[in-house]
Amino acid sequence: MNKILKSLSVSAVAILALSFQTMAQTVQDGLRNLDAERYNAAETTFKQLASIAPTAENYFYLGYYYLNLQDGQVDLVQAKEAFAKGTALDAKKPDPLCRVGLATVKLLSGDRAGAKVDFDLIKKDTKNKNADVLFRIGEAYTLSDKINDPAEAVINIQAGLDIQKVKNNPDYYIAIAMANLIKNDGGAAMTALENALNMGQKTAKIRTLMGRVWYQGKNYPKAQTEFNEAIKADPEYAPAYYYLSSLFTTFGKFPQAAENAKQALNKSEATPAAKLRYIKLATASKDYDGALNILNQIFDTEKDPIKFRLKGYIQTEKGECADGAKNILEFLGQASKERHLASDWGMLGRAYACIKDDAAKKLNDSLAVSNMEIAIEKGDSTFDYSTAIANIYRASKNWIKLAGAYEKNIASSKKGGTAPDYYNLADAYMRSRDYVKADTVYSKAIELYKDSWLFPYMQKARARQYGNPTDTTFSAAPYYDKYIKLSTDAMKADVKNAKYFSEAYGYLGYRALLIEKDTVKATEYMNMALKFDPTNTKAQQVLQSMSGATPATPGTTTPPNNNAPNGASGGGIQPKN
């Protein structure tokens, strides 16, 4: 009997030892899943641990899980509940890590001062000799993008490192790196990550963070290398695919971005939060059909009004503009103002601009402009709203407002406006028949183009004529002359430019005849005008007049169509100058 009891006792000890060993490994499995954004698997692990073995350690990790959920989904209520259960296990000497957890909940709730008091008391009670306590306090100051203190984080984590006899925990250095990323100190962050990498653990996570440092510093090739190394270390590590997708979007390599977005979803878990993240990635990578497919799967059950924003953005990009406007308005109506983005107003304006409803076009154009102007005022730079607004005015032939739009663009430009900006402004003045202003602004365009594009000379000459049709001094002559003299043989040989050369020579011929009284030069110029355009009736009339008839008085011609340069907005044919 004693032998049987002894045998059973030995077996029980063996089973208990095996149980503890399994639990220790399971905690690490839970943390690995948490790092890889497999949140369902992590939650299952930590909940089972706390249920099977309700120890302070297991309650701490359950609470820790709730503090590290995806994309701001932190659950402070459940975290506090888990940490409270951990501290309640020993009323006389509550677990210090669970106490740190409770203070972290207080910190993330916005009570910085209260959390600091609690942290200091915990450090005092542990005599500042518990490395894990110091580490977790430091880490707490890095968990939130909004409520953090990088300096306090580094002080506490470094204190924990100083106490450790065997410095083999990469999490300490990872947390230091996160603190430095918050304060945008890429060099210090990279140094910490290199220290972590040397320990040979959590390679995928560390490589991904290294990629983030390079990405944040706009060193895209090195960022891509690190993300690829992370995937090589662990092909199932979802965050690496997520950042690689964002990187390819930055490059404009949208097919690769879309593929990595799908991988990020597949390698994590198809939770609503993971799907929302995928939808954002897929939308950014212009995979609108893929994004809409997943969005429709969760739309009816998803409570977050962000679903309306995402659907509205996608519909607008797909040309389903009326529905897009409706959904963006729904988001703006349901979501708190703190969640509104400048791009929401911009996309709403874009939606109104592309609604195909002739009966309501004037109203929709007005709403498009007003909403895009709000986006500009709020600092949205994700889209060229200024050009879009100008195109609306151009399409409706509202030249006065078009000129006003270009005036505003130039006034708000940090560089003071480009050559095309001034050309387009002058063109708008020409179309609104404000020739005096057009004349002045063409001078600025000519200055900025530095003779790389000659057509502004032609337009300035016309502005001079149209602004003063009774001008007897032929003040437009220098600009026609410049247009001719600066033009290359190839430009003169291009039939698309023929009418411009004919016009210029004809005007100079008038001047030679009426001002210089030089019939030889006048004849030469008029013949050149006819060479470029045999149908130039005025040149024909002048040549006839020099044979005895009275020459025609130089007058105005019909204002020309817009001939916008490369990079300038607007329609019309561009002469090949």
Question: Could you explain how this protein is built, in words?
Answer:
TPR repeats lie at residues 204-237, 419-452. Residues 1-24 form the signal peptide. InterPro entries: CellSynth/LPSAsmb/PSIAsmb, TPR-like_helical_dom_sf, TPR_2, TPR_rpt. It is a single chain. This protein has 577 residues and is mainly α. It has 30 helices and no strands. Helix 11 (203-216) runs parallel beside helix 13 (238-251), helix 17 runs antiparallel to helix 18 and helix 29 runs antiparallel to helix 30 (537-545). The chain is elongated and about 120 Å long.
Major sheet attributes: none
Question: What is the succession of H and E elements?
Answer: HHHHHHHHHHHHHHHHHHHHHHHHHHHHHH
- Rounded to the nearest angstrom, the distance between the terminal CA atoms is 109 Å
Class by helix and strand content? Answer: mainly alpha
**Portion in helices:** over 70%
Instruction: Please tell me how large the radius of gyration is.
Output: 36 Å
How many helices does DSSP assign?
30
* Gross geometry: elongated
Uncertain parts: 1-24, 551-577
Number of strands: 0
Mean pLDDT: 90
TPR repeats: 204-237, 419-452
Biased composition (Low complexity): 547-567
Protein name: Lipopolysaccharide assembly protein B
Biased composition (Gly residues): 568-577
